[in-house]
Amino acid sequence: MSVVGTLMSRNLRLFFRDRLGVFFSLLSALILFLLYTLFLGSSQIDNLQESFPGVSRGEVKSFVDTWMFAGIVGITSITTGLGAMNVFVEDSSSGRFRDFLVSPIRRETLIVGYLLSAAVVALIMTTVVLIISLAYLFFVDGVSFDAGQIATVYGFLALSCLAFAALSAFVVSMVRSAGAYSALSTIVGTILGFLAGAYIPVGALPEGVRTVISALPFMQAFLPVRQEMTADSLQAMTGGEPEAVSDLESLFGITAAVGDWAVSNTYVVFILAAMTVVFTLLAAVQIRRRIS
Hints:
Elements: H1 2-17, H2 19-25, H3 27-51, H4 57-84, H5 86-94, H6 96-101, H7 107-141, H8 147-172, H9 178-195, H10 207-214, H11 217-238, H12 242-251, E1 257-258, E2 261-262, H13 265-291
Antiparallel strand pairs: 1-2
Helix pairs in contact: 1-7, 2-4, 3-4, 3-9, 4-7, 4-8, 4-9, 4-11, 7-8, 7-13, 8-11, 8-13, 11-12, 11-13
């Protein structure tokens, strides 16, 4: 276990030493923040205020901001695990695997070191972004959350970090060069906001596109986080009117359905847990082949 810890420490140091790599792992979240701060946020607030003329602009802004930051922390839990696998790509392309192979380190230990370090990086970065998000919402919008809400949000984010770190490890294990990895990171960072329904409210998309996005784990992983973070601001904005709450939850991807089937939080836990197990095993097999 001490060897695994040493490998993890080494991988974490290499990742955080590369400041540009750390920045790019957060690029999707930063893009989302800038889009809503500079452009989309004001438009969303204006549209909602037309629908709820008796509600103050501050209450509408609180809802839009909580929805936005739920997307930011959710995206962070996905992209940072992918960013952490840059260490694996560099080790592979530089030929360091040959050094590992002649050392007394077991291949299984090496594999666990890469997988766990990716998950730990995702969890650390997501924790930091969550703290910043909660601080922004408190000081700018006056929105606060109780301990139970924060614990629920963090629990789902932690599970998301594990699941998508495993998925990232599996995908990156098939990448052979730093150039291919950079291209992959760029593509993922570009389309993730759309696949997760973060850039544009999913309810504003055509029905067929909305159904496809709702069926993807990227969107589903965000649901419990959005539900907890927008719960109070949504109730305040709508006055708790059930029909208005239901319509806005559907429009902003706070709830999701595939056909007549509603995606439940229980299912989200199941799919994220299944992803963690399945892609960890697949990634381990693939990485073992690469370092053999």
